[in-house]
Known about the structure:
By secondary structure, the protein is an all-alpha fold.
Amino acid sequence: MCPMPSAETTQSSVREPDPVRPTKDDEVARSGSELIGGPLGQRALLGTSWWTPVRVIALVTIGMFALGLVQKAPCYNGDWFFGASSQYTHACYSDIPHLYQGRGFADGLVPYFDRLSGDMEYLEYPVLTGVFMEVAAWLTPGSGSIQHQEQWYWMVNAGMLMACAAVIAVCVTRTHARRPWDGLLVALAPAFALTATINWDLLAVALTAAAMLMWSRGRPLAFGVLLGLATAAKLYPVLLLGALLVLCWRAGKWKDFGKALGATAVAWVVVNGPVLLLAFDGWSKFYRFSRERGVDFGSFWLIMAQNSSDPISTDTVNTLATLLMLLCCVGVAALTLTAPRRPRFAQLAFLIVAAFILTNKVYSPQYVLWLVPLAALARPKWRDFLIWQACEVAYFLGIWMYLAYTTSGDAHKGLPTDGYHWAIGVHLLGTLYLCAMIVRDILMPERDPVRRAGDDDPSGGVLDGAPDVFVLGAAAHPPKHAAHFDGPQVEWGGPGPDGRSL
């Protein structure tokens, strides 16, 4: 009679697959690694030294963030205060020092409750971002000249935003357990470093990245709480619920979606409720400003307006932009329900946020921060990522050169209107290119870098490896290879809700 194998013997016989090596699977990563000594070895991959992927990527992120601060040095040393056009010619503009006095922080005004002088009336940012700005104002020394205070305010915010950047990189690194080195896409993204301190977007991006990490660990309540906080800091994170809706519809995970939706709503109400009840006019300023704001920088609507003798009204643009966004949402839903294999959460998250950016009536240069962590998870391919980043850097330079042209008077230093339109076109085409690559991966799963390495949906949490319960068209009768999870079941930490280790 043969002895039954012990649990220990059974576990030891199951070989965990190695982490994915980008220097093995990605030609651009392999070529780029020669600058730092060549492809990674097994010791680095397995994390047997202090230099684990999380620590390396966090340090690289902080280093790149510091380089972005150095790039702002001309403005810190005077361009913000002594010349309108020089802060554009040096491409070092930031909203942060200008709004310290312009939004009443220098005078001790309380956001949303105290009325501002001038046309703005109240702070035009969501509540949690306003809290972030106010905390930075509390930490800013109130002595010295207003220029000195504004410099300090920018530095305090830069320190807080650096912490957000590190959180983003760590969360992306940990979301795909077998692909930790994909976090370098975030850490080394040039547009990320250049735009990190223009505004306060990194707060919402950090909360969104943390929410996606929680979802990947099968924790829908924690995901919802963090996503609700992110939505209280910026509006775009709520779009991720739309991506989850169609994914959970296809997989039949309504209970988990309900938990995420409920937690998101509760977290948002907890943050916004007190301000809404006690200072409605101040609370609603963000939403009124978003509706009333005219066509602005970076959008294809601006190209149309500046090339028309009779531009369409703001209300019409609002309506058309909303309709275009709804059409994109319908398209993403149809793609999800008809694809031969259920798309990954990160893929849909990128597509839905990119659709919002492409159809919106304004594209500020820091909005690229919304997409960087999603791109690293959705399409972890260095060639495509760098093509898109090159387009975003071109736009970053283009908008500042255009503003330099419009503020330099008769000198006309910078980029004229036609040149700026080309810069907008480059940004739009770069984003559309990355969207096209992700759609191709969804329609042809064998081209997806994540699934080609043997995973199903490592950012999908309860969706990872789950069978479909509702599909449309040809996806209702897919070939065997497209209908099931054919990747290895891997232990990566604590147990998930389905009993598998994560």
